[in-house]
Design goal:
This protein has 471 residues and is α/β, with parallel strands linked by helices. The chain is built from 14 helices and 14 strands. It has a ten-stranded mixed β-sheet with strand order 6-5-4-3-7-1-8-9-2-10, with helices on both faces. A hairpin with a 3-residue loop joins strand 12 and strand 13. The radius of gyration is 21 Å and the shape is globular. The relative contact order is 0.17.
């Protein structure tokens, strides 16, 4: 493995000491919203530089693109029908070894800062230590999107505190303080930072960032219909403002890591839980099987092992359930028995791909914003359960009524032409359907209706299919 100075990386450094891990993720940050991904409008200079020093898993996918299910899979390495968090605002229990517990067993200190959203006991309520999945250092709120008056609880105190100003800036400062305090420790650390943006509300970034983007100057993806264009431009302008302030936060965090001289032996990851439609296909938010909803960024920098030579890796279609085992593998720690995700760590070092280069897509129970589009969108307000498969070239999705979507993503990257019922593509559709069925069989997923899963797990939902939550 070569660095930019054309010297081979000394892998003995990799074997001497276990790496620190700084895992950063935004909420609802779609893969298409960075400069390094080819977007010339959004300003992300720090992430663009970071990408030149990182492994870029260009086909990363959030297979169940909604907040709580994605986060629960990140924390457990399991699929939603295993851990049970397939809708928002339900509780992730302690029945399996979490990412924090696995790293703690390996001698790590653990810290979590920001949005949690897997406790299910009220979005503003105190979360006691026994419900923190093993995290020790703790500056967390279950969920808020009031970024400028954002509460949190620190340590084991049930006193509600508030971040100063725009919360991600202060959260990043707290993370930097943690790094400074622990850089010389005999124990490595796992630090997870969960920002609330760029999730809606879109128009709440600091003013100097909102001034960078005027709606009338925002170019739209070709799959945004004309009737959705005005609203989409307004939303995206605010969304990009959030992206840029978070990019500055990332820059500050990386500067601290370098200033504390721990860059070489620190794994830094940047990713997200899922994307955001932002008017594409006439739809908003997440839970949908289209690219804007399922595709997420994933950058991983680890100079002691990979050097500082950026490389793009399209073959590893990493998902939320794969991130825990991959980080454990890179840290040379055992992977708990209950983990269902794939460990890509050896593949990233040159071994064979342990996956079949496909991703499973799923909506187990449509709720809330699934039903929302801009002016209803072409698919109206009706949510639907689905199972699908994404390959490097195609997306195929089945609903309870049968084959629903088929896209050639290489020749139709904006997914404008649904090929699912065209006679000349039936053979391809059948082949993808068989691959999808094999994945469902592996997961023992019978593809039932959403309410059957709701009833099986004993959840209660309102008229929008949403599990009611307390403030």
């Amino acid at each position: 493995i070569k660095t930019k100075t054309s010297k081979y990386v000394d892998k003995s450094r990799y074997m001497m000491k276990k790496p620190n891990i700084v895992f950063v993720f935004g909420d609802q940050w779609r893969a298409q919203a960075t400069g390094y991904a080819g977007n010339p409008t959004v300003k992300t200079p720090h992430l663009d530089r970071f990408a030149t020093e990182s492994i870029n898993l260009t086909q990363a996918v959030s297979g169940y693109p909604v907040c709580s299910p994605a986060r629960a899979s990140l924390l457990t390495g399991q699929f939603p029908l295993t851990h049970g968090v397939f809708v928002n605002d339900v509780h992730l229990d302690n029945s399996t070894v979490s990412i924090a517990q696995a790293f703690k067993q390996g001698g790590y200190q653990t810290s979590y800062i920001g949005k949690w959203h897997v406790d299910g006991h009220g979005r503003s309520n105190y979360i006691p230590p026994e419900r923190r999945q093993g995290f020790e250092d703790w500056k967390v709120l279950e969920c808020t999107h009031n970024y400028n008056q954002s509460a949190y609880y620190s340590g084991n105190s049930d006193q509600k505190l508030f971040w100063d100003g725009y919360d991600a800036i202060d959260q990043t400062k707290a993370a930097e303080d943690y790094i400074r305090q622990h850089r010389n420790s005999d124990q490595p650390f796992l630090l997870m930072i969960s920002w609330g943006g760029p999730h809606a509300p879109y128009q709440t970034a600091p003013e100097e960032y909102r001034e960078l983007y005027q709606p009338e100057n925002i170019p739209l993806r070709p799959n945004v219909p004309a009737e959705a264009a005005k609203q989409a431009q307004e939303d995206i302008a605010g969304y990009y403002a959030h992206c840029t302030v978070l990019d500055d936060c990332m820059g500050s965090l990386l500067t601290t890591i370098e200033a504390e001289d721990i860059q070489d032996n620190t794994i830094v990851v940047f990713t997200s839980d899922h994307g955001d439609m932002l008017g594409s296909q006439g739809l908003i938010k997440k839970q949908k099987p289209w690219e804007e909803s399922i595709r997420i960024p994933f950058l991983l920098r680890y100079p002691a092992l990979f050097g500082l030579e950026g490389q793009q890796v399209p073959e590893a279609m990493i998902g939320m359930q794969d991130m825990m085992p991959t980080l454990l593998g890179l840290s040379r720690l055992p992977i708990p028995e209950g983990v269902e995700g794939i460990d890509f760590s050896n593949f990233l070092q040159g071994d064979e791909n342990p996956s079949d280069s496909t991703a499973l897509l799923a909506c187990y129970h449509p709720f809330g914003q699934w039903r929302s589009g801009i002016d209803g969108g072409p698919y109206g307000f009706t949510g639907r359960e689905f199972r699908g498969i994404r390959t490097n070239s195609h997306t195929y999705v089945r609903s309870l009524q049968g084959p629903w979507l088929l896209y050639d993503n290489l020749n139709d990257p904006y997914q404008l032409d649904n090929l699912v019922d065209l006679p000349q593509h039936l053979s391809l559709r059948d082949d993808l359907d068989q691959k999808l069925q094999r994945k469902l069989d592996q997961r023992k997923d019978k593809f039932l209706s959403g309410m059957e899963y709701i009833n099986t797990w004993g959840y209660t939902v309102d008229e929008r299919g949403t599990v009611p939550y307390q403030k």
